[in-house]
Design goal:
about 0% strand; about 300 residues; mainly alpha; globular; 13 helices; Na+/H+ antiporter like fold; single chain
Length: about 300
């Protein structure tokens, strides 16, 4: 049964894909309502935490993912799904989970924004680089002939444009963003989760059939991601306050973006789609559990 997963294609209409694009853009817009250009200036003046987060997110995690793929030797579409998820920027829910964990929320939001901008270049580059190093996934990349520039444009329009618009509104009309910020974040995340569940409903039997094939790998992959963030922040000598943010930011991936790339560029290839969808559900549970554990002690700097 697992062998067939490379031949499975999940059904996802162009209308559904456009709606998911819009929903993800709204989620990004809601996060941007907390940001101002000065947030980035502050990070650049003290870039240590920022650079640690970027290295953990876009270098350490993809490298560990490649090692995981080589050691476990999963089906090619599953392997490429893991590589693609690791190449995505931090997930939007990471900001909420960081707050629950008693971490540096400002750093988390800024890292999400910065990694989103960097993803225009780094996401397609990581998919192409690490995917091409592993023979079975290299074959899929050749068959799909993915265009890194098309991926960059997709990421830019869906994530970076709403990020800029949200920041602009926050600068021009902070009175409006103050009223919109919290309600819009909860509503947008609720819409996003509901839509992904409904979109998967038409493929539910296929998803359940193959979910067990990826479950253990997703659990291990997510644990590696969280460990990568914690280890990078610890070696960088960051405070517990910042360490919690980078741990969660690395362990919470933007699987919604992953699904869009999979259905937009890989025709809904079964193993990839099941990995991204399972990741999208699991990282919320693991993140909330980890936040509960972290929140039992107050990090210096938390208020």
């Amino acid at each position: 049964m697992v062998e067939d997963i490379d031949a499975v294609v999940l059904n996802f209409s162009s209308t559904s894909l456009n709606i998911l694009n819009l929903v993800l853009a709204i989620v990004m817009f809601s996060i941007a309502l907390e940001l101002k250009p000065s947030d980035f200036q502050r990070l650049f003046r003290a870039p240590k935490a920022l650079m640690t987060g970027v290295v953990s997110q876009f270098i350490l995690l993809p490298a560990l993912t490649f090692c995981l793929v080589v050691v476990t030797n999963p089906q090619p579409s599953i392997a490429l799904g893991l590589i693609l998820v690791s190449a995505c920027p931090g997930g939007n829910i990471s900001n909420f989970i960081t707050h629950r964990a008693g971490g540096n929320s400002a750093l988390s939001v800024s890292l999400t924004a910065f990694s989103t901008v960097a993803a225009i270049f780094l996401t397609p580059a990581n998919i192409a680089f690490w995917g091409s190093l592993y023979g079975p996934t290299r074959a899929i990349l050749r068959e799909t002939a993915i265009d890194p520039m098309s991926v960059a444009i997709t990421v830019g329009l869906m994530l970076v444009l709403p990020l800029c618009l949200g920041m602009l509104l926050n600068v021009k009309r902070p009175d409006i963003t103050a009223r919109l910020r919290t309600p819009l974040q909860y509503v947008s995340m609720g819409i996003f989760i509901t839509f992904v569940v409904l979109a998967l409903a038409s493929n539910w039997q296929l998803f359940l059939q193959y979910a067990t094939a990826v479950a253990a790998l997703v659990f291990l992959h997510n644990a590696l991601a969280l460990a990568a963030g914690y280890t990078a922040a610890t070696f960088a000598g960051l405070s517990v306050f910042d360490r919690r943010s980078i741990t969660i930011e690395t362990g919470i991936q933007n699987s919604g973006l992953g699904l869009i790339l999979i259905f937009g560029f890989f025709n809904g290839l079964g193993g990839m789609a099941v990995v991204a969808a399972f990741w999208g559900m699991w990282h919320i549970l693991s993140g909330i559990f980890l936040a509960g554990m972290m929140s039992r002690t107050t990090a210096p700097g938390y208020s």
